[in-house]
Amino acid sequence: MKKQFSKKQPTCKVTFQLPQEAAPNAQTVMVVGDFNEWQPQQGTTLKLDRSGFFKAELDLATGREYQFRYLIDNTYWENDWSADKYVPTPFQGIENSVVSLLEGKNTAKTSQKANPKKTSVQADDLKKIEGIGPKIAQYLQEAGISTYEALAKASISQLKEVLSTAGPRYKMHDPNTWVKQAQLAQEGKWEELKSWQKTLKGGKK
């Protein structure tokens, strides 16, 4: 999921995307949520592109969070693999994906008051690693992997164990590129990292 905040309007262009492997035989994939009153007939259809992702863009008002899910073939639902967070629904065991646009509210004032000082020990944003969403980042942190340096030093077997412990929903994720991505992030090679990430699909080669 990608966000592009408008500099002139209180809106954000959100790119919703679901990897094809999440719906390999799907005929239609729609994003349905708070922004269309959870009405499938008002849902936005995602189109499959060459990168192997179903994608669609929506302009949403900032300053709030939106719950949503993907409706596949008007039959079953799937969550966004890189949502900002997940929240429980009234139905047992079912969660909704959340896209947060709170950072787009009064951003100018916030930046003026921001404290430039950083704490001596601070966790890195592991979500910048392609294939790692908020939930996986949380599980990695709980396993003691909270920085790019720690992730770069982790073994693939260790990462797979974290995913396996998190449950069957996360075992399908492939961590094989995470270590190299973390190494580039740790070294500050962001342009090289972003260029490589464009060739990846959900963190996979």
Give a verbal description of the structure.
With 205 residues, the protein is α+β, with helices and mostly antiparallel strands. It folds into 2 domains: 2-103, Sandwich (Immunoglobulin-like); 126-197, DNA polymerase, domain 1. Helix content is 26%, strand content 25%. The protein is built from 7 helices and 10 strands. Strands 3, 4, 7, 8, 9 and 10 form a 6-stranded antiparallel beta sheet that branches. It has a 4-stranded antiparallel beta sheet with strand order 1-2-6-5, with no helix packed on it. A hairpin with a 5-residue loop joins strand 1 (2-5) and strand 2 (11-19). The longest helix is centred in the C-terminal third of the chain and has 11 residues, at 156-166. The protein is globular. The two termini are 19 Å apart. Mean pLDDT is 85; it is low at 105-121.
What does this entry show, briefly?
With 205 residues, the chain is an alpha+beta fold. 26% of the residues lie in helices and 25% in strands.
Label the CATH architecture of the largest domain.
Sandwich
Q: How many individual domains? A: 2
The CATH class of the largest domain: Mainly Beta
* Helix percent band: 25-40%
SSE string, helices as H and strands as E: EEEEEEEEEEHHHHHHH
Largest sheet: 6 strands, antiparallel
CATH topology of the largest domain: Immunoglobulin-like
Work out the helix count: 7
Helix and strand content put the structural class at: alpha+beta
Radius of gyration, whole Å: 18 Å
Strand portion: 25-35%
* Shape verdict: globular
Distance between the termini: 19 Å
Mean pLDDT: 85
* The CATH homology group name of the largest domain: Immunoglobulins
Pick out the low-confidence regions.
105-121
How many β-strands, per DSSP? 10
